[in-house]
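Re: Re: ligand-bound prediction request (bumping)

Still looking for help on this. To restate: I need the protein modeled with adenosine-5'-triphosphate bound, output as structure tokens. Inputs repeated here so nobody has to scroll up.
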Amino acid sequence: MSTVLETSLLRREFGGLTAVNDVTMSVEEGEIYGIVGPNGAGKTTLFNLIAGTVRPTSGQLTLFGERADRLPSYRRSWLGLGRTFQAAQLFSTHTVAQSLRTARGSARRGIRGWLSSHDTDEDRRALDDLLELTGLTKAADSLPSELTNVQQQQLAIGMTVATGARLLLLDEPSGGLIESEVGQLLDFIRGLRDRGLTIVVIDHKMRLMMHLCDRIMVMTAGEELAVGTPHEIASNTAVQDAYLGRKAAALVTSLEEVGHVK
Ligand SMILES: Nc1ncnc2c1ncn2[C@@H]1O[C@H](COP(=O)(O)OP(=O)(O)OP(=O)(O)O)[C@@H](O)[C@H]1O
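Reply:
Sorry for the wait, this slipped through. Here it is.
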């Protein structure tokens, strides 16, 4: 197993505010790594630093063993980094299959990618694989507007994988999902990991995070408060104090649930 993402003393200041304060973390291949913390903790800024949309004030970032903190976003994509957002970004006039084909084609061959008449057998096999990975084989001819919210997230993530991403940054994937869809999302993300993808996920739904992640980093005020397995996080008094101080009953409930489950 190799390390696919490493940060060392990664820091970002905005004026007098330190949004990310010397964060050192590492994510192993095939891991589901969660980042949680209260509003303003610096989670999104950390994602932006990893994705390259925000420049670090200081510190280092390594992606797939390559120094990446000075690389533009598109070069990080070439290395295998992909990102999705809470509001799934989809082509409204493309079916599921066309969207996946376009995403794959854009990374491989430019605009010609969407022309099915040019598809080789390998292209067709790759599309079938992507449809299967996305869990949308039966919805291949549906437009995004005909999909459920969780299916739209699956498609957005599938399109990122289609571009060649092997490390996925998922930003609040459960946003906008109804409760019954959250379990489907959990199974879907686990399925991606089972296919060898590495996932770093931010989400406010603590129950989901505690059941989904192999390790979780808790951030407060730009800093790492704790990192560990859900069990370790559940029993960490600094985490409990920080969250209790903020009356985040949802986390405490989730921690207790995980304690009961295992
Ligand atoms: N472009 C910016 N300019 C100035 N301040 C910023 C900028 N981006 C983020 N911040 C500040 O940095 C801090 C961390 O914000 P960030 O969005 O990273 O937190 P977060 O943990 O993702 O919060 P949330 O859960 O609400 O999304 C906040 O105080 C925020 O106001």
